[in-house]
Amino acid sequence: MTIGRLSEITGVPASAIRYWERHGLLPQPERVGGQRRYPPEAAERITVLRTCQQAGLTLVEIGEFQREQPHREAMIRAKIGEIEQRRVDLDHAHQLLTHALRCGEEDIVRCPKFREQMAAWETADPAP
Hints:
This protein is mainly alpha-helical. 66% of the residues lie in helices and 5% in strands.
């Protein structure tokens, strides 16, 4: 199929497809009369690439993700650590905002309960 058809099927702009090819995230397609021709499995690979991006992987990490097991394992472990830290950060943000909605203090930073919570966050063990 042409790049236009692949773009239409996947909802990914042709420019992104060409970019992924240049960076080795998609295999170079066969060319017929100078035009790229993609096999049906190219759409599946694009779906995987988009899913990886939505999961928060950078293009470099996606490249590592596509390598053989020993190479991708370190990247995956590091990414899991980042995600766990983001979860902790989001939990703290949720607690702060929930407290701020109920807090009667003029200045939230002076609120004793808020200050206690901030101190607890600073002394808490980092995410596993």
